[in-house]
Amino acid sequence: MSVIEMRQIKREYRMDTKKSKRKQSEAVIVRALRGLDFSAEEGEFVSVMGPSGSGKSTLMNILGCLDKPTSGTYMLDGVETSTSSANTFAYIRNRKIGFVFQSFNLLSRTTALENVELPLFYRQKDKNDGKQRINLSRKEKAIAALREVGLENRMDHFPSQLSGGQQQRVAIARAMVNDPAFILADEPTGNLDTGMTLEIMGLFQQLNDMGKTIIMVTHEPELAAYTKRIITLRDGNLVSDCPVTERGNALSDLAKWKKDHLLLAEDI
After folding, report:
1. Residue 220: CA count within 13 A, CB half-sphere
2. Angle 58-173-105 (CA atoms, 0-180°, nearest 5)?
3. pLDDT value for 128
């Protein structure tokens, strides 16, 4: 079953410039995406790569329903998004997409549990449910999400009391709490050291093995090697779409990294 189905996606930006002599405005059209076709099935783990200016950020914004294409169609979990209203767009972002960012984006004065609960506040309340029942359900879902990422013992901690890897785990739990159609991760390990990077990639692999669909934007080939499929963009075009034939195991690499660093510490 296709979770994502994009056909002939184009995104053009009009930039007005002024001529130096007559100071007349002149329109310059920037073609960020040039008729891109892309699809992802349920349970896939896809990395999006490409040099600066290739269209990665534009594609991510359209995938995340943060922007609309100039032309083309984007079906997300059976919903045509390119013609959706603002209200439908907001509904799709809340219910069907789980966002994971490089900078974690956690609220500093709220606990891990409260951070994970946040997306549930924006869901429409069932008129037949009482307030107490809704709150109980919200808390239970947040606890279950934190348990999935191995942070059931850190639920009452504030972000400042957590390591970078733990903060990103909270962000991943928050992304999953609404059971979205897919998780969209934008450079999710950019602020982490090698050990924490392997830890988060191992978590992504575990979640993917459980059936979660993940789309990850990255510029690092070694991270893309932990996914199942790599698409590469250049100049607004999709230039390659290849399966990962020798997929790495992040948790095994993490164990090796820890062993090597332990031996290095003993030598010192």
Report:
1. 13
2. 55
3. 43
DSSP element (H, E) containing 200 = helix 194-209
pLDDT along the chain (268 residues), means of 10: 95 78 71 96 98 95 95 94 88 93 94 94 54 66 95 96 96 96 96 95 97 97 98 97 96 93 61
- CA-closest candidate to residue 31, choices 240, 231, 235, 233: 235
Q: Which amino acid does the sequence have at 26? A: E
Q: What pTM was computed for the model?
A: 0.90
Which domains does the chain show, CATH number per domain?
A: 2-267 (3.40.50.300)
DSSP-derived 3-state class of residue 265: helix
65: tokens are: 């329903």
What string of DSSP letters covers 116-154? Answer: HHHHHHTSPPPTTS-HHHHHHHHHHHHHHHHHHTT-TTS
- In three-state secondary structure terms, 155 is coil
Distance CA 163, CA 212 (A): 25
- Number of helices and strands in the chain (H, E): 8, 10
